[in-house]
Design goal:
Largest sheet: 6 strands, mixed
Mean pLDDT: 89
Shape: elongated
Low-confidence stretches: 1-28
Order of helices and strands: EEEEEEEEEEEEEEEEEEEEE
Distance between the termini: 58 Å
Structural class: mainly beta
Oligomer: single chain
Helix content: under 10%
Length: 267
């Protein structure tokens, strides 16, 4: 697990450092603020492929004392793992810059921030690794110019960070006589953030589905599992013109995906 330490920068904003800071140097009693209504990526899962940086938006509300100048306050939403959020958290993910806030009242700020997820960059300390896919808790931190102390608040929700998936299908022969056997092959793969390639996703249940020509609905014919390399192969009987596809429901680490239907002409 990688530690990404939270530190204060000169402007009073909170930012992520690629250098770990010993826990003794990171105070837990910062500005008297509370966070609420944190939503990352509009509540949707965060899906990252093999090379391109994915940037998502976060929105949240800050409640503060009326006496606290918002111009001196830096806030940052974070993703974290572990029982609690604090200086001893083993793994933290956050954006490059602190959030920006607008004043709703003397005690309420409405804020937004960007969070970047990089499967590949020139700085290996901020690259994603495959083990980081899965469920993350949501939290936020705050600091200001008057102190080096940081306020930590966790348990503001959860999100799933997922490795983008791909799924192919090929049904043959084409055309085929009615009543004959059709062989349907394909492959389920997902992004590997350690190698920045797509690799087969093994032993996963995948549905073989059929949509008759003229219909808009797919019907599940059977469920099979991928091999150790993510490959799929099964047979079915040709009954009518239509489209065959594989469909994967997804897991916490990998989003669901359906292949584009492959049309078979039955004669």
């Amino acid at each position: 697990m990688r530690i990404r330490a939270l530190v204060l920068v000169a402007s009073g904003a909170v930012a992520l450092s690629t250098l770990a800071v010993p826990a003794a140097q990171a105070a837990t009693a910062g500005p008297a603020v509370t966070f609420s209504s944190l939503k990352v990526n509009s509540g949707k899962n965060i899906v990252v492929g093999t090379t391109s940086t994915v940037t998502v938006s976060a929105t949240y509300t800050v409640t503060k004392p009326a006496s606290l100048d918002p111009n001196t306050l830096g806030t940052l939403p974070v993703l974290y793992r572990g029982a609690t959020l604090g200086p001893d958290s083993d793994d933290l993910l956050a954006g490059d810059d602190a959030g920006t806030c607008t004043v709703a009242s003397s005690t309420v700020l409405h804020c937004s921030a960007k969070i970047q997820f990089r499967p590949k960059s020139s700085d290996s300390d901020v690259d994603l690794v495959s083990s980081e896919a899965g469920t993350w808790k949501l939290g936020a931190v705050a600091g200001n110019d008057s102190s080096d102390d940081v306020t930590w608040q966790g348990d503001l929700g959860t999100t799933h960070l997922q490795r983008r998936s791909t799924l192919t299908v090929n049904a043959s022969p084409e055309p085929v006589k009615k009543g004959k056997t059709i062989t349907v092959t394909g492959k389920l793969a997902r992004a590997n953030w350690d190698t920045n390639t797509y690799a087969g996703y093994s032993t996963q249940p995948v549905k073989l589905q059929f949509r008759k020509k003229g219909s808009s609905t797919y019907t599940t014919l059977k469920t099979i599992k991928t091999t150790s390399t993510g490959a799929l192969k099964t047979t079915t009987t040709a009954t009518a013109d239509g489209y065959y596809r594989y469909s994967f429901a997804g897991t916490t680490t990998t989003p669901g995906v359906s292949a584009a239907g492959d049309f078979v002409d039955v004669q």
